[in-house]
């Protein structure tokens, strides 16, 4: 009999990163299974843990028993448990972090558990001892536990009568609606009606109303409207026991107010037909293959996703669609809901944890078969996957920047191999890695080179801002852009102005001596915020007021420099007072739903100019936009990151794609101080392939991906000498273990050498094939832990990093 459970405990530390054996108490033998969470004694504490496997016996002589299960059925299936092993190995994280990454936050946070009678099921169906606890349809887990009824309840969970639900503390939990049901047999309606007192005509009518709706439930409001009666009449029927009230869950649907226009598949064009055929073949045959769907914006990629998903659904399988967080707009979601209606769940970070949990439960309960979501939706607990689609596959937000540091693309490919299904990576500007893999035949490339409407890509002007300055134009708008802006205003057409705010675009600088105000804790300049006339550090949150005079030379000419969105807005208002402007940046979009509200009102023509940062680069598709201006194309080029040219190219291409998507032709103006840079020049020609070739040469010269893999080790501590010393030792250790063809750079100070008063050093490992890498880094972590962790040093390892700072 298997009554030993191997458990991963919820203590993220080096010493506890392994399975511990526990005894399964007799009453739970056979019911506790892998993938369930349990409460176990751990030292003096009780902690939660995940059951990984069951065994007949353990090497440990005296086993402590499991205290109790936390779930009555597994929350992670076999696939996800297996994937946790791979994820742990692949990203060098603790097993517990990998397991938790797969569950919605509501299940990790502090919560209360409830047992709930399933929808459409009567309390009568419960065994006698449980019934009194469920008269209201819901019982606290604690009270069932105290009554010793958990094992019985678990049986009912297995039978599909009860369900465990997490109530998020302090937040709204499940949303309930009270419904009325007929509580007598439908055949007896007439006899019961005639038994009512003669003056109770209204009550009789209501009762007769149920003749056609015997097994349906109605809310009080619905019933009084439909049966033409009042709440008090209905209440008297409840009192007489002829109707019953039951509380039922309704899902919080963040998109509930909207109605979706049902859409049907469009007849595909020839090029779409050629692209979709191989995908459909793999869906039919159930064979894994990774496709790179390379197609310019507006070339009909989304329609291909939709029709592929349709085939998957016809096969009785499920689909995951990943979309970058900022592109997960209602417009985007509507396209999927419009085609598949209630089959679609949506997961993104704008949802409250309760809402996310609701969506997750729809997946788990198999109420939906399509999930559209940001990065973590790749873990959706589907069991019969037929396709995984990653739109805008080049987006760096698919990489998680905390443990586990996974890339959604790798997880998607792993799952597709497990399920035998295709993965479709879609992009107009694929990541160099993916395009290189497609060129080598590792992925299969599918091309869409024409835009749907055969419309030309917008024409792009590059404006050299140095030239503008030389000719006496000190404004942030070039003459070219300004003329076009005025022109659109007079024609009533819309403009999008894009400001690349990454990089330090609005810092405080002394015009006389060049002094820049820095954060005292981090080696980075402070960002100016006009609203409070203050300066803030984006890394540690440090704030200070703008000085009146320069701390270095006491000059009064110290003020903000560069172009924040607020500054641009001010300038615009001055130059074009008649223009109606909507500004979208972190300051105007912090409130929930504000992002969407701003976009909607722009779409409705309530403004002439939409001014914003990164967040407006995607998904924006309005017919009246005929001009796109990029105020400073090069801020991102100067970030110390080997991907900066790639990111610049992608961003410029994406922004340009916002203009002229419909019948009106579009124009783009890109302002730059480095017009000769190939990423700027080639983006203006919409020439991805030449950019790819040129960038590959740079990557080869620098031994960067896709020619080499990289891993980044970062060490930090308050004491600079300590960091230097330890990072030298660690780099030496890595060097001694790895092969001669691997390049090990450093240790050197990180591009941001200090954050929150901790000095940071890094070592960069570049390798083509390094079988000993995982083992070496693991040993490094273990040794580090033993020798240095107690001294306050921290180390982080990022395999395939996307942030090099
Ligand atoms: P992408 O995802 O590549 O940006 P979309 O799928 O959004 O492209 O297509 C661009 C536009 O063309 C959309 O308005 C879409 O409805 C339309 N479209 C796509 N495929 C077809 C088709 N086969 N016939 C007619 N219109 C299409
Ligand atoms: Zn000065
Ligand atoms: Zn700081």
Automatic annotation (TrEMBL):
Listed SMART domains: DEXDc (SM00487), HELICc (SM00490)
Positions that bind Zn(2+) 2: 519, 522, 537, 540
Residues reported in the UniProt entry to bind Zn(2+) 1: 510, 513, 550, 553
Family classification: Belongs to the helicase family. PriA subfamily.
Cofactor: Zn(2+)
Segments forming domain Helicase ATP-binding: 282-448
GO terms assigned for molecular function: 3'-5' DNA helicase activity; ATP binding; ATP hydrolysis activity; DNA binding; zinc ion binding
Subunit: Component of the replication restart primosome.
Protein name (database record): Replication restart protein PriA
Source organism: Rossellomorea marisflavi
Family matches, as InterPro entries: DEAD/DEAH_box_helicase_dom, Helicase_ATP-bd, Helicase_C-like, P-loop_NTPase, PriA, PriA_3primeBD, PriA_3primeBD_sf, PriA_C
Secretion signal, residue range per the UniProt entry: none
């Amino acid at each position: 009999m298997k009554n030993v459970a191997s458990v991963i405990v919820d203590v993220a530390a080096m010493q506890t990163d392994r399975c511990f054996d526990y005894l399964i108490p007799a009453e739970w033998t056979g019911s506790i299974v892998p993938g369930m969470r349990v409460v176990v004694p751990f030292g003096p504490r009780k902690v939660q843990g995940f059951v990984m496997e069951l065994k007949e016996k353990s090497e440990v002589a005296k086993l402590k028993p499991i205290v109790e299960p936390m779930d009555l059925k597994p929350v992670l299936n076999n696939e996800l448990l297996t994937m946790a092993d791979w994820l742990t190995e692949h990203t060098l994280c603790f097993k517990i972090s990998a397991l938790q990454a797969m569950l919605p936050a509501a299940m990790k946070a502090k919560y209360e558990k409830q047992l709930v009678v399933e929808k459409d099921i009567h309390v009568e169906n419960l065994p006698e001892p449980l019934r009194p606890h469920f008269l209201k349809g819901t019982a606290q887990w604690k009270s069932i536990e105290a009554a010793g009824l958990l094992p019985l309840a678990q049986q009912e969970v297995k039978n599909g009568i009860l369900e465990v639900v997490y109530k998020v503390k302090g937040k709204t939990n499940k949303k309930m609606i009270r419904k009325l049901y007929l509580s007598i047999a439908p055949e007896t309606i007439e006899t019961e009606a005639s038994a009512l007192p003669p003056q109770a005509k209204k009550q009789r009518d209501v009762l007769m109303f149920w003749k056609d709706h015997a097994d349906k439930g109605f809310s009080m409001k619905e019933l009084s409207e439909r049966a033409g009666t009042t709440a008090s009449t209905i209440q008297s029927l409840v009192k007489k026991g002829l109707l019953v009230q039951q509380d039922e869950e309704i899902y919080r649907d963040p998109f509930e107010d909207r109605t979706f226009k049902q859409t049907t598949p469009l007849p595909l064009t020839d090029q779409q037909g050629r692209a979709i055929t191989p995908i459909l073949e793999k869906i039919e045959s159930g064979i894994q293959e990774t496709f790179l769907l390379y197609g310019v914006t507006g070339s009909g990629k989304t329609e291909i996703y939709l029709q592929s998903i349709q085939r998957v659904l016809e096969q009785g399988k499920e689909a995951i669609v990943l979309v970058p967080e900022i592109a997960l707009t209602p417009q985007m979601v509507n396209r999927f809901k419009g085609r598949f209606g209630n089959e679609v769940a949506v997961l993104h970070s704008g949802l409250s944890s309760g809402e996310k949990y609701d969506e997750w439960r729809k997946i788990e309960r198999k109420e939906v078969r399509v999930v559209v979501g940001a990065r973590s939706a790749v873990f959706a607990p589907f069991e019969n996957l037929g396709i995984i689609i990653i739109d805008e596959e080049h987006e760096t937000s698919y990489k998680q920047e905390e443990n586990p540091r996974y890339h959604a693309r790798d997880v998607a490919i792993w799952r597709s191999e497990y399920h035998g299904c295709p993965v479709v990576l879609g992009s107009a500007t694929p990541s160099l890695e993916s395009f290189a893999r497609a060129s080598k035949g590792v992925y299969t490339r599918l091309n869409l080179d024409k835009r749907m409407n055969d419309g030309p890509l917008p024409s792009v002007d590059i404006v050299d801002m140095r030239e503008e300055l030389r000719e006496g134009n000190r404004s942030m708008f070039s003459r070219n852009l300004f003329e076009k802006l005025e022109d659109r205003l007079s024609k009533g057409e819309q403009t999008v102005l894009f400001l690349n705010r990454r990089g330090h675009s609005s810092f405080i600088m002394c015009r006389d001596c060049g002094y820049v105000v820095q954060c005292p804790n981090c080696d980075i300049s402070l960002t100016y915020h006009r609203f409070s006339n203050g300066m803030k550090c984006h890394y540690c949150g440090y704030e200070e007021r703008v000085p009146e005079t320069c701390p270095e030379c006491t000059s009064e000419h110290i003020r903000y420099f560069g172009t924040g969105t607020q500054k641009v807005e001010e300038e615009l208002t001055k130059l074009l007072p008649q223009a109606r402007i909507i500004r979208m940046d972190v300051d105007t979009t912090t409130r929930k739903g504000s992002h969407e509200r701003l976009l909607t009102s722009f779409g409705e023509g309530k403004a002439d100019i939409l001014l914003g940062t990164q967040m407006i680069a995607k998904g924006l598709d309005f017919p009246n936009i005929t001009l796109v201006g990029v105020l400073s194309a090069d801020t991102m080029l100067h970030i110390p990151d080997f991907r900066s040219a790639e990111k610049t190219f992608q961003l410029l291409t994406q922004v340009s794609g916002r203009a002229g998507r419909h019948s009106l032709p579009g124009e783009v103006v890109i302002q730059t101080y480095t017009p000769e840079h190939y990423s700027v020049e080639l983006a203006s020609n919409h020439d991805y392939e030449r950019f790819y070739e040129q960038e590959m040469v740079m990557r080869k010269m620098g031994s960067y991906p896709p020619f080499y893999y990289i891993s980044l080790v970062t060490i930090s501590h308050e004491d600079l000498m300590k960091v230097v010393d330890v990072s030298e030792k660690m780099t030496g250790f890595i060097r001694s273990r790895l092969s001669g063809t691997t390049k090990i750079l450093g240790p050197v100070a990180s591009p941001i050498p200090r954050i929150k008063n901790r000095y940071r050093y890094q070592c960069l490992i570049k390798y083509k094939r390094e079988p000993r890498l995982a083992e070496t880094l693991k040993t490094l972590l273990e040794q580090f832990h033993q020798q240095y962790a107690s001294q306050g040093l921290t180390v982080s390892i990022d395999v395939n990093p996307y942030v090099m700072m």
